[in-house]
Write a structure and sequence with these properties.
By secondary structure, this protein is α+β, with helices and mostly antiparallel strands. It has one domain: Orthogonal Bundle (Arc Repressor Mutant, subunit A), CATH 1.10.10. Helix content is about 50%, strand content about 15%. The chain contains four helices and three strands. A three-stranded antiparallel sheet has the order 1-3-2. Strand 2 and strand 3 form a beta hairpin. Helix 1 packs across helix 2. The radius of gyration is 13 Å and the shape is globular.
Length: about 70
């Protein structure tokens, strides 16, 4: 049934999947830290990236909230 899974997500879907703000996804796309494809006005993010390499969000959150010692 793997062939039924979507290969790409929109930024809104990616934000829901990662439990972050949609604007965060757009900022990461602009910085080049999230791979994406453009089809006309649509921005699509590979699901494989979101499932395998999306630890950046957790790492950034820890750095931002952890006090320095």
């Amino acid at each position: 049934m793997d062939h039924l899974r979507p290969k790409y997500m929109t930024p809104a879907e990616a934000a829901m999947h990662l439990r972050c703000c949609r604007q965060t996804i757009y900022k990461r796309i602009k910085r080049g830290t999230i791979p994406h494809r453009r089809f006309g006005d649509a921005i699509l993010i590979p699901v494989s990236y979101l499932e395998e390499d999306a630890t950046w969000e957790n790492n950034d959150a820890k750095k931002a909230t952890m006090p320095s010692e």
